[in-house]
Design a protein that fits this description.
The complex is a heterodimer of chains A (about 575) and B (about 100).
Chain A (H helix, E strand, L loop, with lengths): L16 E2 L6 H4 L4 E2 L3 E6 L5 H15 L4 E5 L4 H9 L5 H6 L3 E5 L7 E3 L6 H14 L3 E5 L3 H5 L3 H17 L3 E7 L18 E10 L2 E11 L8 E7 L2 E4 L15 E2 L4 H6 L5 E2 L3 E6 L5 H14 L4 E5 L4 H9 L6 H6 L2 E5 L7 H15 L3 E5 L10 H17 L3 E7 L8 H7 L4 E10 L2 E11 L9 E6 L2 E4 L4 E2 L2 E2 L2 H79 L3 H6 L3 H4 L3
Parallel strand pairs in A: 3-8, 3-9, 4-5, 4-7, 7-8, 15-19, 15-20, 16-17, 16-18, 18-19
Antiparallel strand pairs in A: 1-2, 9-10, 10-11, 11-12, 13-14, 20-21, 21-22, 22-23, 24-25
Chain B lengths: L13 E7 L4 H17 L4 E7 L4 H6 L7 E6 L4 E4 L5 H7 L8
Classes of the chains: A alpha/beta (about 575), B alpha+beta (about 100).
Chain lengths: ~575, ~100
């Protein structure tokens, strides 16, 4: 029972750590609490110190084969068992299995008088006995400072508590000492933190705007790196879960595989392949621009690939979403039945933002989805500030990235402008930013979308109109007018105009064609006529030629006959030369 | 923690239990001091039992012993605990209701 100096391991050697089994805590402490050493857990009333201690022991006993001893200085054992049962821990069962030993140290100040020097050997003996009964490796003292209210002579008490911590360290027990923190400038009421040099954790329970949040911070962890942020945590039916705010580095894998958005032409806008797996997508738009429809397409496509989807609905009930999506031809029901799709619907106002995100975190950890949809993240702003939402989302995005989960965050933007500025902060966390827009022109409101950014891939710079049809969301062709994209009836009238112009051009062409035909016909008709005339003339000419030839021949014959018959002289013949011609033959 | 069933002693008698660890100086002093006080003030009407909790850790638990030495005055009522080596005689006497005023 004497305090002995323990050789400190060389600083370059990793400090041995004992896993707490508390979700998230082992990550931020880099492997748990210092093994074989005391850790101080300090916090105000109701901050969860006792639960922390109980879970540390229960997890140790059930998961790491390290039995534990719980020394309660405040709550009675039946009360503790009842409280633990609310976290799903069966203390009585563990006690019966000799994996846990519980002792309640209760003394009442009114009965006690100090008559001289004393020590805490009674407590030492009780603890030693308890340790020996279960072969304990872990011990929780909750809250040892209560002794100050019960035993006289604080000087002796302080010295004895110091001796106790040293003794537990010598015995090699991983110890959790809880302490009440009643003032913000002090860790413990009686300053026992000076006896605990290894690890100090502060729990905090704050209420702001009627919403309570629990936080955990590692104030000190000698010989070990640790996260220094305030980590929100949650106590629910599965115990404590701490959300590691941000992973210590940005070293998550970046898969090169791509997954479809569920909308062909949107894939087309992103190099034809869709999103990167494991990327985070922000989809913002004013109300009624079709965010949920885009999300439903994405979910539907993922389920078709046989992937698991987790849908956080902060605005609509799952039944409503399923019904509404059926109206655009997407049936999510079968995926729900197959267990590929799971909805979690809750209004964030029900709890604080930390709690909402912790719940999100837990569901993701237990459902192990490939795809997560959060619709919309802006509802979180109703319970917190932009700054907090940003820090929460950073953590969530990091968490999702480490698990290579593709996440689609819908964000509702105010109808009156600022839509990009408001989210610029959040958007820097995201790999892809889809903007859905309502374009109001010519007395109507049409939907359009564009890819504002998409890291690491070629993407279209076009603003594309889309319509929600019975058969899903359909991106339309781009119509560029003098004032930008044409949408709705402007697009329809543009289409009409183009059609009309086409028709008249076609008619014009057809007309010219017909004219040509006509001319050709006329030409051909004339040709025929000319040929006919020519033939007639030719015949006539031929006839006259042949007649003249015949006549010549006859004349020659006649002349010969006349010469022969009359034997007249040539002069006579010449004188009446014409007479024989007129003579009929 | 319910009181242990104990035999009812005569009216006005003192039933005292002194929880110690035999091997320590403080405890030896407390035993000596207690014996002296009892002989001087309660002669013939006391029952002092000295219990070494090193041998009876369970008893220490049942009796809610934290500090050593601890004297528990079972009877007469009210139950009272005195911690320390019993060297402050006035406080011991007050604790045993043998003196009316706290010194």
């Amino acid at each position: 029972m004497t305090q002995k100096k323990r050789a400190r391991p060389p600083s370059f050697k990793a400090l041995p750590k004992a896993l707490t089994g508390i979700q998230g805590l082992d990550e931020i402490t880099g492997g748990g609490l210092p093994s074989g050493r005391p850790t101080l857990v300090s916090g105000g009333a109701g901050s969860g110190k006792t639960m922390f201690g109980l879970e540390f022991l229960v997890r140790g006993a059930t998961q790491y084969d390290e039995p534990g001893v719980f020394i309660s200085f405040e709550e009675t054992l039946p009360d503790l068992a009842k409280n633990a049962a609310s976290l799903g821990f069966d203390l009585d069962g563990l006690v019966a299995q000799k994996k846990l030993f519980m002792d309640h140290v209760r003394i009442s100040r009114s009965e006690i008088a100090e008559t001289g020097e004393y020590d805490l050997d009674g407590l030492f003996i009780r603890i030693a006995d308890a340790i020996q009964r279960v072969g304990a490796k872990r011990i929780v003292l909750d809250t040892i400072e209560a002794l100050f209210g019960e035993l006289p002579n604080p000087g002796i008490l302080r010295a004895e508590i110091r001796r106790l911590f040293g003794w537990l360290k010598d015995k090699g027990l991983t110890t959790v000492i809880t302490a009440e923190r009643d003032r913000p400038d002090k860790l413990t009421r009686h300053g026992i933190e000076e006896f605990v040099s290894d690890c100090v954790i502060v729990l905090d329970h704050r209420i702001r705007e009627e919403i309570s949040t629990r936080r955990l911070r590692i104030v000190k962890y000698r010989g070990s790196t640790h996260g220094t942020n305030e980590y929100p945590f949650l106590i629910d039916e599965h115990g404590i879960s701490v959300l590691p705010i941000s992973s210590l580095g940005l070293d998550h894998a970046a898969p090169a595989t791509r997954i479809s958005t569920g909308i062909d032409r949107l894939d087309g806008m992103m190099g034809g392949k869709g999103f990167y797996r494991g990327s985070s997508i922000l989809m913002s738009g004013t109300s009624g621009t079709g965010k949920t429809s885009v999300a439903a397409h994405f979910v539907d496509a993922a389920c078709r690939r046989g992937e698991r989807c987790l849908y956080f609905a902060f605005e609509e009930s799952p039944k409503q979403i399923v019904r509404n999506m059926r109206s655009i031809g997407i049936d999510l029901e079968p995926w729900l039945r197959k267990g590929l799709l799971q909805f979690h619907a809750a209004r964030p106002t029900y709890a604080g933002i930390e709690e909402v995100l912790l719940v999100t975190h837990k569901h993701i950890a237990s459902f192990k989805p490939n795809v997560v949809v959060v619709d919309p993240i802006t509802n979180l702003l109703t319970v917190s500030t932009l700054n907090e939402v940003r820090s929460m989302l950073t953590r969530l995005v990091d968490f999702l990235k480490t698990l290579e989960i593709t996440a689609l965050f819908a964000s509702l933007t105010a109808a009156d402008g600022f839509l990009e500025a408001n989210e610029a902060d959040i958007s820097s966390l995201m790999d892809t930013w889809l903007l859905l827009k309502a374009i109001e022109v010519g007395g109507e409101r049409n939907r359009a979308m564009y890819v504002l950014k998409s890291r690491g891939m070629e993407h279209s710079n076009q603003i594309r109109e889309f319509v929600l049809t019975n058969d899903g969301l359909r991106l339309l062709d781009v119509y560029l007018g003098p004032e930008g994209v044409l949408t709705g009836s402007a697009r329809v009238s543009q289409e009409g105009r183009e059609k009309a112009a086409g028709t008249s051009r076609r008619q014009h062409l057809e007309g010219r064609g017909r004219e040509l035909d006509r001319k050709r016909e006329i030409f051909e008709a004339r040709m025929t006529m000319l040929r006919a005339e020519f033939q007639v003339e030719e015949e006539l000419i031929q006839q006259s030629i042949s007649e003249s030839k015949l006549l010549d021949k006859e004349l020659l014959q006649d002349r010969g006959q006349m010469v022969r018959s009359r034997e007249a002289d040539a002069s006579a013949y010449r004188k009446n030369g014409s007479a024989p011609v007129a003579r009929p033959r | 923690m319910p009181l242990r069933k104990i035999p009812m002693p005569k009216r006005g008698n003192y039933l005292l239990r002194l929880y110690v660890i035999r091997s320590t100086q403080k405890s030896e002093r407390a035993i000596e001091n207690m014996k002296r006080v009892c002989e001087a003030h309660l002669q013939g009407r006391y029952d002092l039992e000295v219990i070494d909790i090193l041998q009876h850790a369970n008893l220490a638990r049942d009796e809610q012993i934290v500090a050593v030495p601890t004297l528990i005055k079972r009877l007469p009522a009210p139950l009272r605990r005195l911690v320390g080596d019993m060297s402050d005689l006035n406080k011991v006497l007050f604790g045993l209701d043998l003196r009316m005023q706290e010194p």
